[in-house]
Design goal:
Elements: E1 3-10, H1 17-25, E2 43-48, E3 52-58, H2 68-83, E4 86-92, H3 101-104, E5 115-120, H4 127-137, E6 140-141, H5 150-158, H6 178-193, E7 203-210, E8 216-224, H7 227-234, H8 239-256, E9 260-268, H9 276-281
Parallel strand pairs: 1-3, 1-4, 4-5, 5-6, 8-9
Antiparallel strand pairs: 2-3, 7-8
Helix pairs in contact: 6-8
Bound molecules: guanosine-5'-diphosphate and magnesium ion.
Residues 17-18, 30, 38-39, 58 line the site of magnesium ion.
């Protein structure tokens, strides 16, 4: 009999959820940034062993929403928590112990699924401290950087997954369309290459996708909220937009194993993060347009 189920990676912003998802699936699926709130929509990563299929969900950080996009992010995270068969509560080892998940995420009730406490960034504390934390807090200490503890974590999760047939092909690492990753990788580049606030006002949309050509041709519109931001994204003589495209292209080529031509154009869409129509165009689940 096989086991399979949904595993939610939950925790505060910046604790290493996306890095762990990537370590678990062995592909850079989820974008990683030292800046908080890089993950906007849950990213799904698959890992299939002989008789276990893990469906990992990298959730946006559970925070108090300040505007409509964040409300949508929080709702997406809460939905995934409710659907999960196992919840991993991630917290950095150097800052252990964490606040209770219910308080952190302001949940009305604890998730119905078992919650495992996972201490991330184990490489930032000593080996003695890792052992002590594991024993004292009943936590699994992992490092996405060194890979330490990942096997222990997988065993602990597998033991708690329900008996079920596999929902996905054993070879698949992701479930989301390539278009999703185009946008994510562009956003990752924005976090890396643009100033403090600009990445939050940045998004992208795929306008054209020709998979049968070589290189694969992808035309995207990059969206920002103001003209001044547009100028920054383009950069002097187009240097910045070129660098953003190059970063995303390298990631995409790695993911699909084929050369990619990425054609990027910038547009201004004022206040898109507070606009229900724009948000749903960009794939955010917006349930309450009145709150815009
Ligand atoms: N040293 C160390 N840093 C890590 C590890 N995992 C994540 N980080 C760093 O922590 C920051 C936040 O990581 P990210 O995965 O984006 O966190 P998220 O916001 O919870 O998804 C990034 O700068 C990562 O490089 C780890 O295992 N060791
Ligand atoms: Mg993340």
């Amino acid at each position: 009999m096989t086991r399979s189920g949904n595993v939610a990676l939950a925790g505060a912003p910046n604790v290493g959820k996306s890095s762990l998802l990537n370590a678990l699936v062995g592909q850079h699926l989820a974008i990683v940034s030292p800046k908080a709130q890089a993950t906007r929509l849950p990213v799904v990563g698959l890992r299939t062993e002989a008789d276990v299929q893990f469906v990992f969900h990298d959730l946006p950080g559970l925070l108090e929403p300040a505007y409509l996009m964040q409300a949508s992010m929080r709702q997406a995270a809460l939905d995934e928590l409710a659907r999960a068969d196992v919840v991993l509560h991630l917290h950095p080892a150097p800052d252990a112990p964490p606040p209770a998940l219910v308080e952190l995420a302001k949940l009305e009730a604890p998730p119905r699924a078992p919650v495992l406490r996972v201490y991330t960034k184990g490489d930032l504390v000593s080996a003695a401290r890792r052992t002590q934390l594991a024993e004292r807090d009943g936590a699994i200490v992992i490092s996405s950087t060194t890979g330490e503890g990942i096997d222990v974590l997988l065993d602990a999760v597998a033991a708690r997954l329900p008996e079920a047939t596999f929902a996905f092909d054993a070879e698949d690492v992701g479930t989301q369309p390539l278009r999703f990753f185009v946008v994510e990788y562009l956003r990752e580049a924005a976090f890396e290459l643009l100033g403090d606030e600009l990445p939050y006002a940045f998004t992208a949309q795929v306008e054209e996708f020709r998979e049968t050509t070589s290189p694969v041709y992808i035309r995207v519109t990059l969206y920002v909220e103001r003209e001044t931001q547009k100028a920054i994204v383009i950069g002097r003589a187009g240097a910045t937009i070129k660098a953003i495209g190059a970063h995303a292209r390298a990631r995409l080529e790695e993911l699909i194993g084929a050369p990619v031509y990425l054609d990027c154009w910038v547009k201004v869409l004022p206040r898109w993060r507070r606009n229900a129509a724009a948000l749903s165009l960009f794939g955010f689940p917006v349930t309450d347009p009145e709150s815009a």
